[in-house]
Fold this protein.
Amino acid sequence: MLALALTADLSGVTDLRPDDTEDKPFFYTFKVQCTSCRETHPNWVSVSRFEMNEQSGSKGEANFVWRCKNCKREHSANIKEAPKSYPLSSPPRIQNIIEFDCRGLEFVEFKADGDWLATGLESNTKFTAIDLSEGDWYDYDEKANDEVSIKDLKWQIRRA
Ligand SMILES: [Zn+2]
């Protein structure tokens, strides 16, 4: 199992998580490496836990099915559980956000495309459509009368 792990400095918000439901699936965007031939491919790929794709040779379905252009082998990945939310902690602590069961491939680099959610720490304000693609995020919590932010994001892919 591989996990996408996050370390981030949250201020005034907690429970940072991908907006990922059956009605609004989140697409996790990665660069992918073939573990058969070790080629890392230049194009970004996207994986959704609500999407099923047919594998060749009656191997059933998987969330992500991918054929390596270099060695022509077909590989797959599945997401078994819903994402976990990232809590505010001081100092920031690394935490797994989502785990992947990968067959013949590894995700090697993550791009934070898509909408993220977070909750005001004391105010319970719901922040939606948080964009982390450019890195830091800043907003204002009207209920708490205070600035909120998410900074110093570090994405890692590690063994789960
Ligand atoms: Zn390959």
